[in-house]
Write a structure and sequence with these properties.
- With 435 residues, this protein is mainly beta.
- The chain has 3 helices and 30 strands.
- The strands form 10 sheets. Strands 14, 17, 18, 19, 20, 21, 22, 23 and 24 form a 9-stranded mixed beta sheet that branches. The protein has a 3-stranded antiparallel beta sheet with strand order 4-3-5, with no helix packed on it.
- A hairpin with a 2-residue loop joins strand 21 and strand 22.
- The longest helix is centred in the C-terminal third of the chain and has 7 residues.
- The protein starts with 6 loop residues before the first strand and ends in a 5-residue tail after the last strand.
């Protein structure tokens, strides 16, 4: 009979060496011993220098013998490491060594273009198989110089057709729409009354574009916030949402924040005829939730255009724009564009930006006095703990970096004083949009 330990037991009569018959029990070992290796760190990989032979697996041992460090469960295989002489995270393919753990000054990567200069390293290129200068985000190549048929743009939504990319013209099949084009997800859509706006927010304007810190930190909501703030939409606007995939877009098309676009009466510009929530992109384009120009279902042909943001002063066109089936255009960032009122925006290196600091949403920016914009920042961080930092999607985040601070470097209080005038803290900036 077979035993659990692999031996066989035989019971019966046996002939001894002196030819006498005797009843005996005999046990025979029928297994072939296997080599087992110690696995002290229990990572499933064994130490080749510590082994034993047994029919059954001993406790704390495994059949594998490839562990190079049996004291660390995170390390078990010998890897090839490449010298990173300039410390840029990219290694020199020509200088390498094999080791269980990462040697000082070495990295796993072996793609460095010049290991003597930390500013020279490979970048990610995107395949542009259809030659439309828009690349496929799912087909990439890391290279030191631009490879043929690759681009640094990753916005193409169909890399098999050179006529399909964001904002390329198309035909949506509706004879009553005009200016049809593709949004960022290859959806062809036209519009009735539409407007193309370019604008920048002073709070996050930097190096020619707005920063998208809110998106980067996962704070940008997918539903417009203005309804919750008490804004009354007119003409079908309100409740707009964006596809969460928008939050994965990087580069110039990346979303910065929600804004409100208004069409105002050509006779009385204080009257709002229609309003919609829209998205401001890093390069300053104000786009509808489908990525196209902002559309309105109105029958008129002339309207003032006003643009609002939750913690910046709004801005409005000096005169009416014409809506005739093609997108009306206004570039609020251009100093030559006439705007309603006086001193309506902040000039930063010949780029006009909407005034920041309206933390109370009361159509003005003030540093002192009743309903000033400084005190809400202190309340946000804690009136008894001014050195604290609050994080979130907050109107008190004047510089729109995803956090609110009252003191310290890049705090949100100082920009308000700078806008008012550091030597005239009692001044007030008034929004130049009629109400």
């Amino acid at each position: 009979a077979a035993q659990p330990d692999g031996k066989v037991v035989i019971v019966g009569s046996f002939t001894a060496f002196n030819n006498t018959t005797q009843n005996r029990v005999a046990r025979f070992n029928t297994c072939t011993p296997t080599a087992w290796f110690a696995d002290l760190d229990q990572d499933g990989f064994g130490d080749a220098s510590s082994s034993q032979s047994a029919c059954d697996q001993p406790a704390g041992s495994v059949a594998d013998n490839t562990d190079c460090n049996d004291n660390d469960p995170a390390v078990h295989a010998v890897s090839t490491w490449y010298l990173d002489n300039d410390g840029d995270g990219f290694g020199n393919a020509g200088i390498f060594q094999s080791a269980c753990s990462q040697p000082p000054g070495f990295v796993h990567d072996n793609n460095d273009c010049d290991d003597t200069d930390p500013e020279i390293f490979p970048v990610l290129w995107y395949a542009d198989l259809d030659g439309d200068m828009h690349g496929d985000d799912n087909n990439t190549l890391l290279a030191c110089t631009q490879p043929p048929n690759y681009t640094d743009d990753n916005s193409d939504c169909d890399d098999t057709d050179p006529l399909i990319f964001p904002f390329a013209t198309c035909n949506d099949g509706d004879p009553f729409t005009h200016g049809d084009n593709y949004g960022p997800f290859c959806v062809c859509a036209g519009k009735l009354a539409s407007v193309q706006i370019i604008a920048f927010l002073q709070g996050c304007y930097e190096n020619g574009m707005d920063r998208d810190d809110l998106r980067v930190h996962g704070l940008l909501p997918t539903t417009e916030p203005y309804t919750g703030m008490g804004y009354q939409f007119i003409g079908g606007g309100g409740g707009e949402t964006i596809d969460p995939a928008w939050l994965n877009i990087t580069g110039p098309f990346a979303p910065v924040d929600w804004v409100v676009v208004e069409l105002r009466d050509p006779i009385n510009p204080a009257d709002v005829v229609a309003s919609r929530a829209a998205i401001l992109t890093r390069e300053g384009y104000v786009v509808d939730v489908n990525g196209n120009e902002v559309n309105f279902n109105v029958t008129g042909t002339h309207y003032y255009i006003a643009l609002h943001h939750r913690n910046h002063l709004g801005v409005m066109s000096q005169s009416t724009l014409t809506f005739n089936g093609t997108a009306a255009q206004i570039n609020f960032s251009d100093p030559s564009t006439s705007t309603y009122g006086t001193n309506a925006q902040k000039n930063i290196n010949s780029v006009m930006t909407m005034w920041s600091g309206n933390t109370t949403d009361n159509y003005q920016v003030s540093y002192t006095g009743f309903m000033n914009d400084r005190d809400p920042i202190l309340v946000a961080v804690g009136s008894t703990s001014p050195n604290n930092i609050a994080t979130g999607y907050l109107n008190t985040d004047v510089n729109m970096d995803g956090s609110v601070s009252y003191t310290g470097f890049h705090n949100d209080r100082d920009p308000i004083l700078v806008n008012i005038g550091s030597t005239t803290p009692n001044n007030i900036l008034i929004e130049q949009v009629p109400h």
